[in-house]
Amino acid sequence: MSKTYRVLVVGLGKRGLHHATFFKANPRFQLAGIASRDQARLQGALSKLGQVPSASDARALALSVKPDVFCFCTPPGVRLDLIKLGIECGTKLIAFEKPVALTSAELFAIRDLIRKAGVKAVISHQHRYGVHYRKVKEIAASGALGRIHTVYGTATGWMTHMLSHLIDYTCWFNNYTPGAWVMAQAAGRHKLTDNHPSPDYLGGFVQFANGVRGIYEVGAGAPDQPEVGKWWGKNRMGAQGTEGFAEVLTNGGWRAVTKGGGHQSGDGAMNYDLDMPPYIQEMADWLDDDKKAHPCNFDHACLGAEIMLALQRSAAEGSQVALPLATVADEQALLKAKLADRPVLVSCDPNRKEFGLG
Question: Fewer Cβ atoms within 10 Å of its own Cβ: the N or the C terminal residue of the chain?
């Protein structure tokens, strides 16, 4: 009989409730507890989830429950202490939201803790389960694009919300080849005080070790996708090769042109009801068998996190930055010290309101 794994979910905003709901729906997991300091959210979650052990004190509940899976869905400013708690309570797998860390100092500390403890870790890059994302990966892997020379991603959402997604999926298209160096620029200070602190606009280049070039833009100056209505869904990721291209729009399907197949396209949109079940199931698969590493595993996410932090460091320092990072830094502080205090220039009218420009 398959083992049932006990899960504790900490943080009960939209994403935390998604995780708790889909863990509970999967027969391989028992929702053994939920925790939030926000009593209204805690009570709201209980009204949807039923009688589940709950507490406002995550530490006390974690040490009592001793879960197999410690899942936390919180803003990015509280990663390290929760990683420590997950390890302290003896969990086998820690699942948490992107981005992995706000600074390279924090990233390296988290990586050291996870490796020393020998626990598995999964990062919530679950968009990849969409049929449109998987179709683009299939085309890129098939050879139909010829030699892939460029991967790219753009999003009008700001950096700390969206760049981790863009980098992870395009690294997937490029078989998670490590980066060699980056170069970037940034502008705008409005979102530096957001709970996902970011420059208003960041654009940059990544040279991957296999010669593929990555091109990324996020925020106010990133190109609009007028064919997509939902502002948070205006995200485009793709791969270009010597024989064609394939790209996905988060809320606008996929499209491709290949030498043998001509123009192709299909539907698809981000849908938690479809994307979350396989994301959750593959945690059970990995817990069952070490050889079945979760596609959203921590090592994959760390490759992207170093790229994301190196882009910020490059924008602050005005120079190329080599990968892997050899030293730690506080990239948030570097950006705050260097970004000019003048309004960002936007690519489209919908961005004006989102970036405090009326």
Answer: N
